[in-house]
């Protein structure tokens, strides 16, 4: 009987939460990242005895504070921890009152005194978004891209009295893709994998298995904080260096230059490996060669003769446009909403209100980002609109392109009406009567989204195999035409809509495509 009881106890005690050692934690920091680390640590059975975060901003609490307050976890909102180099007595007493065994700093912009860092039994651990000792400092992700690193990653380290110099507990890395931006790298790897790593690090400490690996001085770098004032583009550099500078500031703080006397910020950079498409020249201050406004974006040139392309431009008033529309910006007039579209607008207004909880009333002039929204709120907005507006699929860029509520609704309505689609393809057909049907066939080369005659104008006869008669004359593609087609296909793959689309949306369209043809085949109604 006792043996059976011990087996039952053993089975019960080996559950995920009850078997592992658990700690009393103080979370110090802020942001959605901090909130997710908090949620996952609680889920794993650790006890968060106190959350120390920043004061509310414009009446809106930090996400970490919101999650902790919802759970009834004690929350402390200190504007600072010390004055004139000394820890504030009341702050220190409030911290010590929670009795933490470990401090966890997932993302913290405040300076935390060393007597607080060293206070718990296990000390403090910090998340840093670089592979230390490389890129110490607050702009680590920016500099990872600016310097053209091939690998990115993060470190969880033990806090000491230096700046990101403490012993390493664990590190993770990933490959950097050619057109990764700060946002892309953060959302794809640093955010989701960083949360898992912080939870893993805490558990290693709880189990007494956490290493302390001294950081080597070899390869150590420290770079300054990147702000808007020092993000200006210096043009006398190679295309790759320009590309890394632009994407290393995308979305924050944004690499900028002066065009026609106005500060313009560049987003969505990619190296142009295909031939330069035709476009309208655009003079840029400091650039030796004008840019080209093309149908896919703004082409820029490095001092090595190579090119890059940026997709989006933002002006000083906050308005963002596709770079391809630089010369036509502002020509679109507002559209009148139908009754059904008004309902969609009201639904979206409720979604905005839920995200911008600090804004009393969502008005036409309400700006999504100036009201406190972050890049993670963009993801939430797009997903909630898809769920609540009949599957309407927006891209993150749609939010950045129309940050004011009125402009955003106009963009949504145009998307609903299909007005943001490209013009209908113009095709010349040859018509033939076959088996009491009129069959239409294109006879030109299809290159870069258009039907066109062969470069040298040559044609050849296509023959009806049933009677040997000539059906029509078809364009005879030359080597020049083939080169144009290959270059256009390469450019579309690297810079087109499909390449920018997220994997889920590509999958949705592929499924829709397959389903359509299966249905057509089943009905024997293939056109």
From TrEMBL:
Gene Ontology terms: cellular component: cytosol
InterPro entries: ACP-like_sf (IPR036736), Ald_DH/histidinol_DH (IPR016161), Ald_DH_N (IPR016162), Aldehyde_DH_dom (IPR015590), Formyl_trans_C (IPR005793), Formyl_trans_C_sf (IPR037022), Formyl_transf_N (IPR002376), Formyl_transf_N_sf (IPR036477)
Keyword Ion transport included in the entry's annotation: no
UniProt EC number: 1.5.1.6
Alphabetic keyword roster: One-carbon metabolism, Phosphopantetheine, Phosphoprotein
One Pfam family named in its UniProt record: Formyl_trans_N
Family to which this protein belongs: In the C-terminal section; belongs to the aldehyde dehydrogenase family. ALDH1L subfamily. In the N-terminal section; belongs to the GART family.
Catalysed reactions, semicolon-separated: (6R)-10-formyltetrahydrofolate + NADP(+) + H2O = (6S)-5,6,7,8-tetrahydrofolate + CO2 + NADPH + H(+)
SUPFAM superfamilies: ACP-like, ALDH-like, FMT C-terminal domain-like, Formyltransferase
Domain of life from the UniProt record: Eukaryota
MF GO annotations: formyltetrahydrofolate dehydrogenase activity; methionyl-tRNA formyltransferase activity
Protein name: formyltetrahydrofolate dehydrogenase
Stretches assigned to the Carrier domain: 339-416
Phosphoprotein among keywords: yes
Enzyme class: oxidoreductase
GO BP of this protein: 10-formyltetrahydrofolate catabolic process; one-carbon metabolic process
């Amino acid at each position: 009987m006792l043996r059976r009881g011990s087996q039952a106890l053993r089975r019960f005690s080996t559950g995920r939460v009850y078997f592992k050692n658990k700690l009393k934690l103080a979370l110090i920091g802020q942001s959605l990242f901090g909130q997710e680390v908090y949620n996952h640590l609680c889920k794993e059975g650790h006890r968060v005895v106190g959350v120390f975060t920043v004061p509310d901003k414009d009446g809106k609490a930090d996400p970490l504070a919101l999650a902790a307050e919802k759970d009834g976890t004690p929350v402390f909102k200190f504007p600072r921890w010390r004055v004139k180099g000394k820890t504030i007595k009341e702050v220190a007493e409030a911290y010590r009152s929670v009795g933490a065994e470990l401090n966890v700093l997932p993302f913290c912009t405040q300076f935390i005194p060393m007597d607080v860092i060293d206070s718990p039994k296990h000390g403090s651990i910090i998340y840093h978004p670089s592979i230390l000792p490389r890129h110490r400092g607050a702009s680590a992700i920016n500099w990872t891209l600016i310097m053209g690193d091939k690998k990115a990653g993060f470190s969880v380290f033990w806090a000491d009295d230096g700046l990101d110099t403490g012993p390493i507990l664990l590190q993770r890395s990933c490959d950097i893709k050619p057109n990764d931006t700060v946002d892309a790298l953060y959302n794809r790897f640093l955010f989701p994998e960083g949360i898992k790593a912080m939870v893993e690090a805490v558990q290693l400490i709880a189990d007494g298995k956490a290493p302390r690996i001294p950081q080597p001085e070899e390869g150590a770098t420290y770079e300054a904080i990147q702000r808007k004032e020092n993000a200006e583009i210096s043009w006398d550099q190679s295309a790759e260096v320009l590309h890394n500078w632009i994407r290393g500031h995308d979305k924050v703080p944004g690499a900028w230059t002066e065009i026609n006397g106005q500060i313009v910020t560049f987003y969505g950079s990619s190296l142009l490996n295909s031939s330069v498409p035709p476009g309208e020249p655009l003079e840029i201050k400091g650039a030796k060669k004008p840019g080209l406004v093309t149908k896919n974006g703004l082409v820029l040139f490095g001092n090595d003769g190579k090119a890059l392309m940026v997709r989006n431009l933002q002006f000083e008033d906050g308005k963002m446009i596709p770079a391809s529309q630089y010369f036509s910006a502002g020509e679109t007039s507002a559209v009148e909403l139908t009754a059904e579209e008004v309902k969609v607008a009201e639904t979206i207004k409720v979604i905005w209100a839920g995200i911008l909880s600090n804004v009393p009333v969502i008005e036409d002039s309400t700006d999504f980002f100036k009201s406190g929204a972050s890049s993670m709120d963009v993801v939430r907005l797009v997903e909630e609109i898809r769920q609540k507006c009949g599957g309407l699929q927006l891209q993150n860029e749609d939010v950045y392109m129309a940050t004011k509520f009125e402009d955003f609704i106009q963009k949504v309505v145009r998307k609903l009406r299909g007005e943001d689609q490209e013009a209908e393809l113009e095709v010349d057909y040859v018509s033939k009567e076959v088996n009491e049907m009129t069959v239409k066939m294109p006879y030109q080369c299809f290159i870069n989204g258009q039907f066109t005659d062969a470069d040298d104008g040559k044609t050849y006869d296509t023959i009806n195999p049933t009677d040997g008669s000539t059906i029509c004359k078809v364009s005879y593609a030359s080597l020049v035409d083939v080169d144009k087609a290959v270059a256009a296909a390469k450019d579309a793959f690297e810079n087109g809509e499909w390449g920018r689309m997220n994997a889920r949306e590509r999958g949705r369209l592929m499924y829709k495509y397959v389903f359509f043809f299966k249905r057509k085949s089943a009905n024997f109604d293939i056109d």
